[in-house]
Structures are given as structure tokens and as C-alpha cells.
Design a protein that fits this description.
With about 190 residues, the protein is of the alpha+beta class. The chain contains 4 helices and 8 strands, in the order H-E-H-E-E-E-H-E-H-E-E-E. InterPro entries: Acyl_CoA_acyltransferase, GNAT_dom, MSMEG_0567_GNAT.
Length: about 190
């Protein structure tokens, strides 16, 4: 028999086993993604004072990673945005953020990057670029990106990087996106 104390203890150990990574489709997804960006870029990293929104948000596509419960999206735990630049065929990714409690699920950032490039590829992207914080360069290199130059963004060291589109099949269905499973850690 399960008592109420057992339920409380179970809640402390709960971790989602499945994540849905897709283009944001509902208002709550957009709201939670923007709140996550504020938490990461304003509060945690102190890059922006109050809000990280800018003119790009007016035309960018927002992608989200959501933890699922019983197969249903429950909480936005990661996000990235993509947008077309003024140069024909050129797309950019930016504002990649994963909730600190979910960073141990190292594949979430990689899956967001994969969807970002794959989605842009389906929309006519010939060149996909990003300004990447230096600590994230190794991850991007593992995912088929090359560094073009070292630069500074908001006074912090970054690398301008370009994705190898050959690594990324076009994703024509952004709302279905990708489903990924939690990492299993041996006890």
C-alpha cells in the first residue's frame, strides 16, 4: 500500500522520460520560453538588465523543448529562436537556453540546435550561422559546425559559427518536431 509520504518522496525523484522539441505552437509555450530566456540571460548570466527581447523577436520562429508527462507537453525546459537575415538564404540561430535543472539532460541543447538548423534548411536556408558563447563551442563542433571567427557579443567572448547543412535533413513539420528520451543514468 502506498501512503502519502511515499508519494511526496516519489515527487522528489520524478524526472521526465520524454521531451518534445518543436516550433512553439501555443501561447503558453511562447510565454514559458520567454520567461526561460529572461531567467537564463537576465538573472543567471546577467547579460541583459530586465529583458532579452529585441527586434528580431518580431519575426523569429521560436523553438521549444518541453518535458512531457504521460506523453503530453508539460513545461518548457529549453528554447532557441531562428530567423532569416537580410542576405538571401542566410539564417541565424540565437538565444539558446536550457533550464538549469535540465542541463544534465545534455541532449536537449543538441536537439534544439538540430531542429533549428533542420527547420531553417526546410525553409530555404543556404547558410546557417550563430554567435556561440565560447564554453559551447565544443558542443557545436560535435554537431557539425565550424568556427568562422572569435568575436564579442554584449561584452562577452563568442565565436561566430556556421552549421554544415549536410548534417541536417530538412524538417518540414515543425509542430511535430522531434521526440527525445531522457538519459538513463546507471546507479
Amino acid at each position: 500500500m502506498l501512503c502519502i509520504d511515499d508519494l511526496c518522496e516519489m515527487a522528489d525523484h520524478y524526472a521526465p522520460v520524454e521531451y518534445l522539441v518543436r516550433e512553439a505552437a501555443q501561447q503558453w509555450e511562447l510565454d514559458e520560453a520567454m520567461a526561460l530566456r529572461r531567467a537564463v540571460f537576465c538573472i543567471e548570466q546577467g547579460i541583459f538588465a530586465r529583458d532579452d527581447r529585441d527586434a528580431i523577436d518580431g519575426h523569429a520562429r521560436l523553438l521549444v523543448a518541453m518535458s512531457c508527462n504521460a506523453g503530453m507537453p508539460e513545461q518548457v525546459v529549453g528554447t532557441v529562436r531562428i530567423h532569416r537575415s537580410d542576405v538571401p538564404g542566410e539564417w541565424w540561430g540565437s538565444r539558446l537556453a536550457v533550464h538549469p535543472a535540465f542541463r544534465s539532460q545534455g541532449h536537449l541543447g543538441a536537439t534544439l540546435i538540430r531542429l533549428a538548423v533542420s527547420r531553417a534548411h526546410a525553409l530555404g536556408c543556404d547558410t546557417f550561422l550563430a554567435q556561440v558563447q565560447m564554453q559551447n563551442v565544443p558542443l557545436f563542433r560535435k554537431l557539425g559546425w565550424r568556427m568562422l571567427e572569435e568575436t564579442s557579443v554584449h561584452g562577452r567572448p563568442h565565436a561566430r559559427m556556421q552549421a554544415d547543412l549536410g548534417w541536417y535533413a530538412p524538417c518540414h513539420d515543425p509542430v511535430s518536431g522531434f521526440v527525445t528520451r531522457a538519459k538513463v543514468v546507471a546507479a
